[in-house]
Write a structure and sequence with these properties.
- The chain is mostly helical.
- Helix content is 80%, strand content 0%.
- Helix 3 packs parallel to helix 10.
Length: 256
């Protein structure tokens, strides 16, 4: 049997009264909607600074979920489109080559990720000049890495038998495979110096702005994919046009 207090709550709910859990949930939802805005709160008071922190957390959460959902949907739609355009064998080659970019992304040796703590500490102390030095140092170092990688890429493209390395002999001619690899690696080399951009936004608690650029890059990349399929271009052009939106939007985010 239910105790008297539980029976009273059940009776009250059955009479149309709202349960405390529903009230609490509604209050939290209203608080979330209240802080979910683009305009910053005044940071001259403790309450304003607290609201500003919650605003940035809410915007980051909502924008991050939006980017992941839309990015996943675009990816799911892209797969059958590319498969139908290239065929099974060439689709497998396309998947392998584009995966190279994710593998080579380890080339920055964690430098971009290590930048977050230094920028956050400098920002907390109000040392904007120091933060600028950290950022410029990391950027220059990544530019040098990109140049070295570019030199290695040029040498390897002419020497390495990519068809044999990727197990793709007979799938496409050697020139198509080589230029497809070149397109994928070029996109990465272009993106490498600007890979610090996301860490800068994270350090200043403005990841929601970065998510906006990331969403724009995903949409532009998908549109580029549709355009290349529509024009019936070769695989190297398909890889480059559909992927070049990423470095371009990252550069735009860096400049912003």
């Amino acid at each position: 049997m239910r105790d008297p207090e539980e029976q009273a709550r059940v009776t009250a709910t059955s009479k149309g009264e709202v349960s405390p859990r529903v009230v609490t949930l509604w209050q939290r939802l209203r608080q979330l909607v209240g802080v979910l805005r683009l305009k910053s709160f005044e940071d001259t008071t403790a309450e304003g600074r607290s609201l500003e922190r919650y605003r940035r957390i809410a915007l980051t959460t909502v924008s991050g979920m939006t980017v992941r959902v839309i990015g996943s949907l675009l990816g799911l739609v892209s797969v059958p489109l590319v498969l139908a355009y290239l065929g099974k064998e060439r689709f497998g080659l396309w998947a392998i080559i584009t995966t190279l970019v994710a593998w080579v992304s380890l080339f920055d040796l964690g430098m971009a990720n290590g930048l977050v703590n230094m920028l956050s500490a400098a920002h907390g102390r109000g040392e904007q000049d120091e933060a600028g030095k950290y950022l410029s140092t990391a950027f220059v170092a990544l530019v040098i890495m990109a140049l070295v990688l570019c030199l290695v890429m040029v040498v390897c493209l002419g020497v390495v038998p990519w068809g044999a390395v990727l197990g793709a002999r007979g799938v496409a001619d050697e020139a198509t495979i080589r230029w497809s690899v070149a397109a994928a690696l070029t996109i990465f080399v272009m993106s490498l110096p600007f890979s610090v951009t996301q860490q800068v936004y994270a350090a200043y608690q403005r990841t929601y702005v970065w998510n906006g650029f990331l969403l724009a890059g995903s949409i532009l990349g998908f549109l580029g994919l549709l355009l290349t399929i529509r024009l019936r271009v070769a695989m190297p052009v398909l890889i480059f046009v559909s992927g070049v939106a990423v470095p371009f939007t990252t550069m735009a985010a860096y400049v912003f």
